[in-house]
Amino acid sequence: MFEGYSLAELGSIFAMQGFAGLILFSVFVLMALGLAIIFGQMGVINMAHGEFMILGAYVTYLCSNFISSTVPALFPAYFFIAMILAFFASGALGMLVEWGMIRFLYRRPLDTLLATWGLSLILQQVFRSVFGAREVGVVLPDWLMGSVAVTDTIEVPINGLFVMGLTMAITVVIYAVMFRSRWGQGVRAVMQNRTMAGAVGINTEKVDRYTFGLGCGIAGVAGSAFTMVGSTGPTSGQLYIVDTFLVVVFGGAQSLIGTIASAFTISQAQSTMEFFLSGSTAKVLTLLTVVVILMLRPQGLFVLKVRR
Amino acid sequence: MSSDKFDAGKPVGGLPSPLRRKLLLGMAALPAVGLLPRGALAQALPTDAVNTTKLAVTDSTVKVGILHSTTGTMAISETGSVQAEKLAIAQINEMGGVLGRKIEVIQEDGASDWPTFAEKARKLLVEDKVAAVFGCWTSASRKAVLPVFEQYNGMLYYPTFYEGLEQSKNVIYTGQEATQQILAGLDWVTKEKGAKSFFLIGSDYIWPRTSNKIARKHIEMKGQKVVGEEYFPLGHTQFNSVINKIKLTKPDVIYASVVGGSNVAFYKQMKAAGIDLNKQVLMTISVTEDEMLGIGGENIAGAYACMKYFQSLQNPNNEKFVAAFKKMWGANSVIGDVTQAGYLGPWLWKLTVEKAQSFDIDKIAVASEGIEFTGAPEGYVRVHGNHHLWSKTRVGRARPDGQFDVVYETADLIEPNPFPKGYQ
User: Fold this and answer.
1) Domain spans in chain A, listed from the N-terminal domain onward
2) What are the chain B neighbours of A135 within 8 Å (beta carbons)?
3) B199 compared with A308, residue with greater pLDDT
């Protein structure tokens, strides 16, 4: 397929392809971080994760409409406001759900699967009733569209760079919160041994609620960011849920590093294969590889080393 | 809405009063006396005569079904069809109904689930005994209900443009089949843009694959080249790799049949990757005004779409239709190709029933051939013997405001050819 191209042309295509892979990687990490906390750390199989993301996307949509009609001067910066609002909206809903539903199901993981799946259907129908069945178009500020020309032939999409930057920032924040703060220590203590954590005076219920809220909040931010690359409709969340679980499970559910490593592996494999093979074949091969590796190594790529 | 009468069907009803008095006597005990002027004609055409197969037809009413997804993924697309069908039915009732009988709608939800479609179709035909069903959107749902319609001898008016390769006594296809939609568009882009190479990209299911098969045959028969053909799973949201591939192969035309949510991702990412659709020719057969809402006009402006109807079409029928649609469903509503095709269904059925002077499915199936609807928003349409429509094909250019500028239309109606020889 490369006959008739100069070396320089091929070089720039491969450079752009490299960026495409990195962007996919960022998207995967962003999708999976929230779930890595909820599923990985708390052990809750949250099938409604995609809907929390779409809630963030709808918040962005409302925010864009509101700002462009009231204070158009702020429009170029609205995306940041929208992401913060998305975080709080999804986070608050997450805490509500934890309080009203999840906390009764901590000891019954399979029931949470059913319950959260039901929740996802309910949320989809709520979105449909409120925003209509059709997809909504989120208008982006101009500076987020278009591409940067690195050289004459290499162009990198700006929104891709934005997602990459955002992902890095959120990853660093999560890392700091989970591994460098007192609160994060509490979270990890509760996850490792709930009874003991309670015995030493940690309010485990509160920790659960905030952790779940944090995971959902991050999902909201991810959803907000994805309005740049994907669609916003009542069922759009379903597009992400499979990939999200894939990344988290493949990485080893309890390890944040594992999530990142697995996002990297899957995204690179998929984007390279998509380039050389066709789209559907690439997806099939990626899934097959993941299945085979998980058969050989059911605990995922990385495992938290704890004494049990 | 009485001002919205179309020149197609002549208003019926309102016969002289002796008949009416007779009817009053005859029906005095019945509660449904609100429809007397219409009932008068029904008396002239007694129910026993126009309905020999025990359909849900009375002296004053006839029941029809609407079967679309109002929940689930497909609700995005099917909502417009439901609205158009209800508008058409409301207008027909306004004009006196069908053979003097007011149309009553029984709406069922297919819930984006094909077995549900089949089950609801059976319910409409067996329990409700509806005289016609307007419904289905995806080919999968149509394939699921087809055996039901054939077994219980129902009549389905199917609005979506689709891949062809099907014909049934029990279905009237009011959208275009693949060759009608594809060939004229390809010829236009070749002539107008001097296109020599094409990159075909679509979602991975039967309609894009069959359409691209026809497109590829046509392109290669004319000595042009297909430089790439790619399919992505439904709902795929990452197109960066294929966009790089498009950049590498530098096709004259990107020929796109990506559907649903993937569309949004595809066009947004192309724009972000610096592909300017004002310079790069892109022709799509899957983006209507409906999809534009989600994609955002600014992301797709400049692209060409090839289908039979655009909301911006300028003719008196369409102006009336758009005004009536907006009056009924809100000023912000948009009308895409399939929505318009959905609107044709009830009208074609009414005209056919009046021609056949009967609601019987067998008679309608035969009488359908040659039915003309001059009030169609897309202009004049005629039903072919193969139950598809003769229609024009048009090319529209996407505008940032979510509408299309019609830049080309075929001079003549194109004959529907669901089983194209040499293209399979």
Assistant:
1) 23-237
2) 76, 261, 264, 293-294
3) B199
| Residues pairing with A147 in the sheet | A157
Q: Which residues of chain B does CATH 3.40.50.2300 include?
A: 2-175+314-390, 178-307+393-409
Query: Nearest chain A Cα to B296, which residue?
Result: A137
For residue range B213-228, list pLDDT tens digits in order: 999 999 999 999 999 9
Nearest to B242 among A5, A23, A274 (CB): A274
Residues of A in contact with B113 (CB under 8 A): none
Question: How far is A186 from chain B, CA to nearest CA, in Å?
Answer: 37
Tokens of A1: 């397929």
Task: Just give the CATH number of B178-307+393-409.
Answer: 3.40.50.2300
Q: Which residues of B touch A23 (CB under 8 A)?
A: 240
Minimum Cα–Cα distance from B202: chain A residue = A279
Confidence of residue A73 (pLDDT cuts 50, 70, 90): confident
Q: Pick from A27, A18, A288: which is nearest to A170 by CA?
A: A27
**Among B residues 251-280, those touching chain A with beta carbons less than 8 Å apart:** 260-265, 268-269, 271-274
> Closest to B293 (Cβ–Cβ): which among A16, A135, A282?
A135
Question: Is B71's Cβ below 8 Å from some Cβ in A?
Answer: yes
Characterize the bridge pairing of strands B389-390 and B404-409: unpaired
SS3 track for A201-258: CCCHHHHHHHHHHHHHHHHHHHHHHHCCCCCECCCCHHHHHHHHHHHHHHHCCCCHHH
Pick the residue with more confidence: A11 or B3? A11
ipTM over 0.85: no
Cβ atoms of B294 and B350 within 8 Å: the answer is no
- pLDDT interval class at B97 (50, 70, 90): very high
What integer pLDDT is reported at residue A5 of this predicted model? 67
Q: What is the third-level CATH fold of B2-175+314-390?
A: Rossmann fold (3.40.50)
For residue B309, give the amino acid letter: Y
CB atoms within 10 A of CB B53: 14
What are the start-end ranges of the E strands in chain A? 147-149, 155-157
